[in-house]
Amino acid sequence: MTDIVLDTPSKPAKPSPLTRLIGRVPPIRKWKWGFVLSVAYLVVLTFFAVFANVLPFIRRYNELPKGAAARKLASYRGKPSGSYWFGNDKLGRDTFARSVYAAQKTLTIGLASIVAALVIGGLLGMLAGYYRGWYDRVLSVIFDVLLAFPAIVLALIVVGRFFQSGRLNLGLFQMDKRFFGVIVVLTLLSVAPLARIVRAQTLALSQREYVLAARGLGASSWRILIREILPNLLPAMFSVAFTGLAVLLVAEGGLAFLGFSVQLPFPTWGFMINEARPDIVKGGGWAVFFPCILLFLTVLAFNVIGDRVARRFDIREATL
Amino acid sequence: MRYFAQRFLQLIVVFLIVTFVTMVAIQAASKDPARDLAGPLNSTEARVEEIRKHYHLDRAYPIRYAYWLKNLVTLDLGNSPTLGASVRTLVGQRAPITLLLGLYSIGLALILSLPIAVYAAYRRDGPFDRFVSGATFAAVSLPNIILAVLLGYFFATKWRIFPYAASKIWPWDDFGEHVRNVALPTITLAVGLIAIFVRLLRADLVNTLQSDFIVMARAKGLSPARILWRHALRSSLFSLMTSVALQFGGILGGAVVAEQIFALPGMGLLLFQAVQQKDLLVVQACAALFALAVVIINFIVDMLYAVVDPRIRHARALG
Fold it and tell me: Domain residues of chain A, as ranges?
């Protein structure tokens, strides 16, 4: 007697959450090279930014050359070379090290602001879109107020009033006050547009059959919001996060340019551009060019990624 | 009508909140607002006290705000100690420049983006369309500070086509000089706008060109040009108009950067200088004007929507 092996009908393997999010990796000939290059660029940049404090050739971002080296490098005499890839700035500091260090600061500020804005804006937008009524009306006035503030006045109020200088003690970790202030400004600037997108999506989603079904089954509002609506909002929020991050990097550049962002010794790209701009004819061209190109490439990369994610999930609000 | 009244009420509430918050925050940020308003030069104790009385700075914020509102209505917003002129004069001198700058950049963007978008949509996925798609994507990602610095370097410093430090010349005084002075700031603001408008309009037109009434028009034997410019474009113009209005806040923000780089004495530069020199009343007035512009534009957009789409007007009735 032979064992009869019953073939259990093979279930299709459940895709992992990662696969569900980014889809199957297509064969190379179908790759979107703009997207691949953007991801690669951001990975490299993030690597340098994360290890900026450890890597010896980036740690020297604030080092002034001494003696003979100073005469050779300062006043924009240092051109791009093997030891100074991006040349040197007015004081002879390494522009490459400063640019990468600026990447660390700028990316941290951008990421922190967009995450905070997504959490706050997402929550407010969901509540406004789900409950509607007076709640929606109050929130829409608040969003309108935030949108009507000129960014520079907001920066003056927040950075100038509350986070001028010094250290901020948040218990577990400490932070430069001004750094925190810039994050607050950028968060305030982006909460309203994000909340509006989420609100519009929630309005549409809460009319769908499965939400009505869940309500019919007696699910609480919170359960509906978190289990039914939030998962369907995530793709939109995910792609808005990238394009929003790009917008925030531009905004940070503008604030830094006007002198309202993080202050020395921390450089950011906007600050570096503004710093070397008056000396552009006196050889400061490289010191302007490299921060510009890094800022542009980073914004472009985030936009490309955001665009692909939006196309993949077919989200119209987030496309450029 | 009910919808109209509701939106109008909201406009006023938003404006009041913005100006009140601005006033409280700016004055609370200063150690002594009266001393700042007395100016750096003639700040004797008596003078400071006089200023304090004159601007009611010894009163509580709501009362101060009420006086400020009264002054706003009568257009008597006090004097700027650092610039040595009344706030009304300053704003009156500067606001038209920023307004012109905004109009020029929107106008330039519309003139250029309409034909580009129409042709790209007409020859969809052709070489021109692909080039435009790539170029506009890059332009959207180009921060205006970079654009301004590049334009300034090439056109003003290197080739000396345009002056670097713009000065205020009215178009009716010397039109050529006026154009030369505002050209670079205008281009700075316009490039991003062109990219946004082209992308929006092209996507909209591509959709429209597939709809039935276009097939109908083609079947009737109308020329492609007539179909594109008359039939297709008309239905896409509304979303373009909305986008124009919504970009307005961004233009005001960009004007601060552009005016600062090219030293164009408009509202943006005034606000920037006032912020730096703690010129409280000027900051308040500028913020109020910016907020008013944004709020009114939003209101107009809402009204346009309501006129075109009756469902918005009667949202309450439908529940």
Answer: 41-51+81-312
The interface predicted TM-score (ipTM) is 0.85
Integer-rounded Cα Rg, in Å, for chain A is 24
**Nearest neighbour of B141 by CB, restricted to A145, A246, A285:** A246
Give residue A52's pLDDT: 77
User: What's the DSSP call for residue A169?
Assistant: E
Q: Does A191 touch chain B (CB under 8 A)?
A: no
Q: CA dist A110 to A47, A143, A189, A207, A309, Å?
A: 16, 21, 12, 34, 19
Of the candidates B10, B145, B272, which has its C-beta nearest A144's C-beta? B10
Give kind and range of the element (H or E) at residue A173. Answer: strand A173-176
Chain B within 8 Å of A41 (Cβ-Cβ)? no
Percent share of chain A, pLDDT over 70 = 73
Q: The whole model's pTM is what?
A: 0.85
Query: Nearest-CA distance from A69 to chain B in Å?
Result: 29
Residue B69: pLDDT above 80? Answer: yes
Q: Which residues are within 8 A (CB) of B131 and not within 5 positions of it... i.e. 6 or more apart?
A: none
Work out the average pLDDT over A268-295.
81
pLDDT of A171 > 70? The answer is no
Residues 287-306 of B with CB under 8 A from A: 287, 290-291, 294-295, 298
Specify whether domain A41-51+81-312 bears CATH 1.10.3720.10: yes
Listed by number, the residues of chain A in 145-174 with a beta carbon closer than 8 Å to a beta carbon of chain B are 145, 147-153, 156-157, 160-161
Crossing angle (nearest 10°) for helices A230-257 and A177-205:
150
Q: How far is B19 from chain A (nearest CA, A)?
A: 9
Mapping DSSP to helix (H, G, I), strand (E, B) and coil, where does residue A260 land?
A: coil
Please state the separation of Cα B145 from the chain's center in Å. Answer: 17
Per-residue model confidence as pLDDT tens digits over A33-79: 888 899 999 999 999 888 877 777 666 666 666 666 666 666 666 66
Is residue A74 a contact partner of residue A91, using CB atoms and an 8 Å limit?
A: yes
**Closest by alpha carbon to A253, among A109, A147, A45, A86?**
A109
